[in-house]
Amino acid sequence: MRYYSAGRYYRAVFGRPMQKAALDAGCTCPNLDGTCGTKGCIFCDGGSGTFTHSGSITRQLEQEARRISAAHPEAGILAYFQAHTNTYGDPDFLRVCYAEALQFPNVEGLAIGTRPDCLPEPILELLEDFSHRTYLTVELGLQTIHDHTARKIGRGYPFSVFLQAMEKLRSRNIRICVHLINGLPGESDQDMLETARILGQLRPDAIKIHLLHILKGTPLEQLWRQGGVAPLSFAEYAQITAAQLAFLPESVVIERLTGDGDSKKLLAPLWSRDKHAVRNAISRYQKQTDSWQGKYALRDGSAVSKEQSRKNT
Questions:
Q1: Helix axis angle, 91-102 relative to 57-71, nearest 10°?
Q2: Phi, psi at 182, each rounded to 5°
Q3: Whole-structure pTM over 0.90, yes or no?
Q4: Tens of pLDDT along 55-100?
């Protein structure tokens, strides 16, 4: 395999496969409650809540544990707070949610999905506390380093905020996973490669690469119907993702190479339903071009400066 897969990483850390149990803690998002917006990012159909269950954290974990056990009986569980922004709320409430998840049998760690602009000091202290108690990853939804694209998709914060968030988490030795989306409106291949190149210099612990889905009921649907955005083709996505991997250091865990869209809402690209085929296409393209993760990554560990970040605005 020409990239550092999550499967290989988790086996090394835990001694067995790990699966994430998707959870909804009932959090909202500053891009929904009016703090920085009310409609969310243009691709958002509810903050990934499609993949979660209702009820208490324990009740949700019971349902997820049955699903995981049926498909991967040997796997351990990471409690993944996925829906909306899971550091956006009262620290005492969040502490109870995180602790409840850790009490569930076979849960060996936490993954907490959030936004870089939702990490005030009390929350950072909370995360640091849990990082000493269990395996913890904070997953930051960046999508792109380019502020002109961020404004188009209504992200609600500039790249400089992301850089600050990484510094704050790093200073507390908290593991960081960064989410990217390929195929955002107006982005060229060079834009997507630049995002990978800069992130490669920043060296997060892990990266998830998604593709842009057109889902019913989102602002993106209207833009798509008006011809304002065209999803990447199967071949385009495989090629650009393989090329991005070459800019990421070999130490960065690739936790995802493609993404899920709610099958009941998915309008395009329909080829994305076959994730296995997408992953295989990326691997084939790596072989055809004799490419691998880290081929063009900087070896000196240098990171992007704040001055460089300003040039991206």
A1: 40
A2: -95, 140
A3: yes
A4: 999 999 999 999 999 999 999 999 999 999 999 999 999 999 999 9
Which pair of structure tokens corresponds to residue 31?
Answer: 């891009």
Q: Where are the domains of the chain?
A: 6-311
Domain made up of 6-311: CATH architecture:
Alpha-Beta Barrel (3.20)
DSSP secondary structure letter of residue 128: H
Q: Which residues contact 248 (CB under 8 A, 6 or more apart)?
A: 196, 199, 200, 207, 254, 293, 294, 297
Tokens of 20: 């994430």
For residue 84 the two structure tokens come to 């909306």
The pLDDT tens digits of the residues spanning 155-207 come to 999 999 999 999 999 999 999 999 999 999 999 999 999 999 999 999 999 99
Smallest CA-to-CA distance from 234 within 288, 185, 192, 273 is with: 273
Structure tokens at 205: 């612990």
- What whole-number distance in Å separates Cα of residue 222 and Cα of residue 148? 20
Helix (H) or strand (E) holding 214: strand 214-215
